Amino acid sequence: MEITNVKGELEKRIDFDEEGYFNNTPLTSEITWLKIMANYAMEKFAGRRVTKVLTAAVDGIPVS
């Protein structure tokens, strides 16, 4: 499957519960999305020395 509209596909997978919490399971359960996020982070922080990554919850660890 080829994704040509990454932003649109991402928006489809963004889910908030009734209390307003973000459910990132649809993103962290797919290796393709983890690769896309990793490439974005590498591009965003290129040239900087990153020594620590903070995640707000356990389910954020795959993204970290």
Description:
This protein is mainly alpha-helical and about 60 residues long. It has one domain (about 5-60). It is about 40% helix and about 5% strand. The chain has 3 helices and 2 strands; from the N terminus they run αββαα. A two-stranded antiparallel sheet has the order 1-2. The mean pLDDT is about 80.
Sum up the structure in keywords.
64 residues; mainly alpha; two-stranded antiparallel sheet
| Shape call | globular
Largest sheet: 2 strands, antiparallel
Radius of gyration: 13 Å
Strand content: 5-15%
Write down the overall mean pLDDT.
Answer: 81
Termini separation: 26 Å
The number of distinct structural domains comes to: 1
Number of strands: 2
Enumerate the strands of the largest sheet in spatial order, edge to edge or round the barrel: 1-2
Helix content: 40-55%
Poorly predicted tracts of residues = none
Number of helices: 3
- What is the chains' assembly state? single chain
State the order of secondary-structure elements, H for helix, E for strand. HEEHH
Structural class, judged by helices and strands? mainly alpha
Question: Topology, pairings included?
Answer:
Layout: H1 6-13, E1 15-16, E2 22-23, H2 25-28, H3 31-44
Antiparallel strand pairs: 1-2
